[in-house]
Structure formats: C-alpha cells, structure tokens
C-alpha cells in the first residue's frame, strides 16, 4: 500500500527510550524479552500517521525472525507485532486516556506467525497490510476482537491462489500481557484457516477448532503458525476430526449469534397494496415509513451487537465476547451475548404478523442449519443483519428471554427488525426439510414452505438483492 514503507526498527532499542512514548516502550520491552538479539527489527510504518489524517490506524508493524522450537517440531517463522490498537501515547491523540487501571486503547495488539519459506531472507510485508485492514475494521466499527473469534475474509490472505482465506484469533503463545501507564495490553494472534475450518468454527466455536489445529503439525501446531502453502484441511489430514466437531456441535451448540447477510423479509399478511413496503411501521392508527432518526437508532443498536459489513470481505466475526466468563445454558436472553444492544425506539410499535416470507442469498441460506441446530436447539437466538439496509431477522427459541415474538404470536416486527419464534418441534421439522441446503450444488432459486405455520423461505441468487427495492 502507498501509505506503508519498510524501515529499520525503533530508536527505543538503542538507548533512546526517554524519547519514546511509554505505551510504545512497554510493547517494545515485551518484544525485547523474546528477541534480545533483534533490537532493531524491520518495521512497516504508516507514512502519514492515523492521528495526522492518514488512513492506516497502526503506526508500526514490527517483524521478527523466530527460530521456532525444533524439540517441539515448531518450524522457523516470521513473527509480526502491531502497534496502534493500544494507546501508545497517552495524550488522547488516538485513544481516550482512561487511566492505568483499565484497558489501553482497545486493549490488545495483533500478532501473526507466518512460516518462513526456504531461502527467504526477509519477511514478506503483505501481513502488515492484512493487519491494517483488521485494525481499520476495529476503529470504524468499534467492535473489538477476542480469542476464539473468527473472521470471514473470502480471499487468500496473501492474494495468491492459497486455500488459506479466513482467520481465527487466539492468544499469542509467547507474548505476555503488558501493563503500561495507559492500561493493559494483550496480544491476539491471527491464524490463517481454510474455508472448511472457518465453517466448522461457525458451526461449533473458534476455540474448539483452534485446539484441533494445535494438534495437527502441518496445520499450525502448538504455536499455530500459518503456512500459506498448506493445501489440505485438518479434515483431509485426519477425517476423525470431523466426528469431534459434530459431537461438539451436538453437545455445545454454536457460539455464532449473528452475521451480516443478504436478506429481506415480507409481511404476507399485509393487504396487497402494502406489499412493497416491508419497512412501514404503525404509530397509533397511522402508517408511516421509518424516519431517519428511527433508522439511525436501530442501525446503531444493531451495529453494537452485530458485525456490519464495513468491508465486503471482512464480516461475519463471531460474537462471543460477552460469554467467556459464564457457562452456556439453554436459557438464553436477548439481553445477553451480541444482541444486548438491540433496544427498539419507543415510538416504533411492535406489530404481530400472521404470515411471513424470508429471502436469503445462497451464502446466508447455507447458515440456516447452523442457526437451527447450533443455536435454537440449544435455547439461543441467531440474527441476520442485512448489508443492504436496516433490515434484521432474528430467530429465537422458546427459551430466549426478552423477545417480543411469542408462541401465541411467533412473528413480530419492530420497524425493520423481524423476530421469529420457533418451537423445538418446528425446528426439527425445518431441519429435515432443508437438508439439501448444505449441498454446494444446489440450484437456485429454492423455496421451502410450511403452510400450516404460514412461513415461507426462499434462497435466491445474489443479483436479486442488488436492487435497492430489496
């Protein structure tokens, strides 16, 4: 990228620490602990700093040569460390200074371990651009990352023909959290994965797949080193691992509570003349379109809890961060996990619908079995947030608290947000009826209908959702 350039390392390593901000010093100190012989590492630096109007939030990405650990069969690799997601300066130029007791900036920096190719004398710089892309997402959305999160990238991480096209996040195996004068900083490592491994993480959870990757040497090993030349998934290497994933889904369910999607819903119980206005709402006896203020309120509420598509290839990112410190139970709540911030505007009246028609593109449709089996059968909820507007569709089970859909009125709308309550019996029936959705060869369009439940679902080509009317 034009705003990036390689440079030799920081003068803080040369005895000029007093000239350097204390947040920067603290991270350099942790790097020196691991790499005492690399006091002046190569760096990629933003030519125009973010706080001076530049586009890249990370001031620097340091690049180290790690010899690995032959005794543990850990190969030599390049180790990248970001600087800029945490508060480096403590003077409010980028992050609000909130004191030493809390988190520094967003509370973490990113790392990445890339297998060193034979004969490679310098680290590739493409991981720095990847890290800047993730940092831009964090700054723009204010959605932070946690260990176990997964990131859909839908493109080889190095823009090659590699099968490594997505990412999981985990704690860096060597770097320890550091306490700076501006707060605590931890280190989250990016781990490149194949599409099949990402899908398994979505259907189960990221931590489970990370544990499987650690046990497969060529897929990452104990330090989860990314090998862009890896051509086999962990399920190709060891087919028995799929059984562990299936058992995990059955036992634990899925931690993915929402995705950005191409979707739309129609109220089939509305009179024909209103069919083209699925975003109408009722206030008293008058019908009106959602105002700009209402639209912004619901958009902001959904943004806080879900992964909105600020970059077409980035989300979905799993929403697990609110559930790390509590056990999962079959009694979920819309006040917990990633939907905690969905608070409808007081002027928007909830209305019950008799019959609804849901429309998804193929990628979104293939997540329906995950939604039903991995979430609703475990007493949880799952939300599709449209990338083309304010529309949202939330499926809830009978065990979810705080829902405005009920067993008596299973379809309820609050402005553009639709909730659908499904009983366990109906979920099982739907799963049996949509089995063919898991096939990549499915021809579109596909339609599924449950007349007795007054529910219809269509899976349509992407082009259908390109129209602004959708």
Descriptive tags:
alpha+beta; six-stranded mixed β-sheet; 470 residues; 10 helices; disordered N terminus
Structural commentary:
This protein is of the alpha+beta class and 470 residues long. The chain is built from ten helices and 21 strands. Strands 1, 2, 3, 4, 5, 6, 7, 8 and 9 form a nine-stranded mixed β-sheet that branches. A six-stranded mixed β-sheet has the order 10-16-17-19-18-14, sandwiched between helices. It has a four-stranded mixed β-sheet with strand order 11-15-21-20. Strand 20 (446-450) and strand 21 (455-460) form a beta hairpin. The protein is globular. Residues 1-5, 8-17, 274-291, 297-331 and 335-347 have low confidence and may be disordered.
Percentage of β-strand residues? 25-35%
Query: Count the helices. How many?
Result: 10
Fraction of helical residues: 10-25%
Let me know the number of strands: 21
Q: How does the major sheet shape up?
A: 9 strands, mixed
Low-confidence stretches: 1-5, 8-17, 274-291, 297-331, 335-347
The value of Rg in angstroms is: 24 Å
Pairing-aware structural class of the strands and helices? alpha+beta
Straight-line distance between termini? 35 Å
Question: In short, what is this structure?
Answer:
The chain is α+β, with helices and mostly antiparallel strands.
Layout of strands and helices, then pairs:
Layout: E1 4-8, H1 22-34, E2 42-46, E3 60-66, E4 77-83, E5 103-115, H2 126-141, E6 150-152, E7 166-171, E8 178-180, E9 183-193, H3 195-203, H4 206-214, H5 234-237, H6 240-252, E10 258-261, E11 263-267, E12 280-283, E13 286-289, H7 292-305, E14 351-352, E15 356-361, H8 362-365, H9 368-375, E16 381-386, E17 392-397, E18 411-414, E19 417-422, H10 424-433, E20 446-450, E21 455-460
Helix pairs in contact: 3-4
């Amino acid at each position: 990228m034009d705003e990036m350039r390689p440079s030799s390392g920081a003068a803080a390593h040369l005895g000029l620490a007093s000239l350097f901000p204390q947040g920067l010093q603290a991270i350099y100190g942790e790097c020196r602990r691991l790499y005492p012989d690399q006091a002046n590492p190569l760096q990629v630096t933003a030519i125009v700093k973010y706080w001076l109007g530049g586009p890249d939030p990370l001031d620097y990405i340091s690049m180290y040569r790690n010899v690995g650990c032959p005794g543990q069969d850990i190969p030599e690799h390049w180790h990248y460390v970001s600087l800029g997601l945490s508060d480096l300066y403590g003077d409010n130029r980028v992050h609000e200074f909130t004191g030493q007791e809390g988190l520094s900036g967003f509370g973490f920096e990113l790392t990445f371990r890339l297998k060193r190719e034979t004969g490679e004398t310098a680290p590739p710089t493409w991981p720095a651009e990847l890290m800047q892309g993730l940092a831009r997402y964090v700054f723009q959305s204010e959605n932070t990352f946690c260990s176990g999160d997964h990131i859909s990238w839908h493109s080889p991480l190095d823009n090659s023909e590699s099968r490594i096209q997505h990412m999981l996040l985990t704690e860096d195996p060597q770097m320890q959290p550091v306490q700076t004068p501006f707060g605590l900083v931890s280190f989250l490592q990016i781990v490149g994965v194949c599409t099949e491994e990402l899908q398994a993480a979505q259907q189960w959870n990221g931590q489970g797949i990370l544990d499987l990757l650690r046990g497969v040497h060529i897929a990452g090993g104990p330090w989860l080193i990314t090998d862009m030349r890896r051509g086999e998934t962990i399920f190709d290497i060891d087919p028995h691992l799929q059984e562990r994933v299936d058992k995990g889904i059955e036992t634990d369910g899925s931690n993915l509570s929402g995705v950005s999607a191409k979707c739309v819903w129609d109220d089939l119980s509305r009179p024909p003349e209103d069919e083209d206005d699925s975003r109408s709402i009722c206030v008293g006896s008058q019908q009106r379109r959602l105002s700009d203020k209402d639209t912004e309120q619901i958009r902001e509420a959904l943004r806080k809890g879900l992964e909105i598509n600020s970059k077409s290839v980035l989300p979905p990112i799993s929403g697990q961060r609110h559930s790390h410190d509590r056990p999962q139970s079959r009694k979920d709540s819309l006040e917990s996990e990633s939907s905690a911030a969905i608070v409808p505007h007081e002027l928007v009246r909830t209305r019950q619908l008799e019959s609804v028609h849901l429309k998804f593109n193929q990628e979104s449709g293939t997540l329906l079995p995950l939604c039903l089996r991995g979430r609703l059968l475990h007493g949880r909820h799952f939300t599709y947030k449209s990338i083309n507007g304010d529309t949202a569709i939330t499926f809830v089970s009978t065990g979810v608290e705080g829902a405005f859909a009920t067993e008596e009125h299973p379809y309820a709308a609050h402005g553009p947000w639709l909730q659908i309550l499904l009983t366990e019996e109906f979920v099982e029936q739907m799963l049996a009826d949509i089995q063919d959705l898991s096939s990549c060869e499915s021809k579109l369009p596909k339609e599924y209908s449950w007349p007795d439940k007054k529910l219809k679902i269509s899976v349509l080509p992407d082009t259908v959702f390109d129209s602004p009317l959708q």
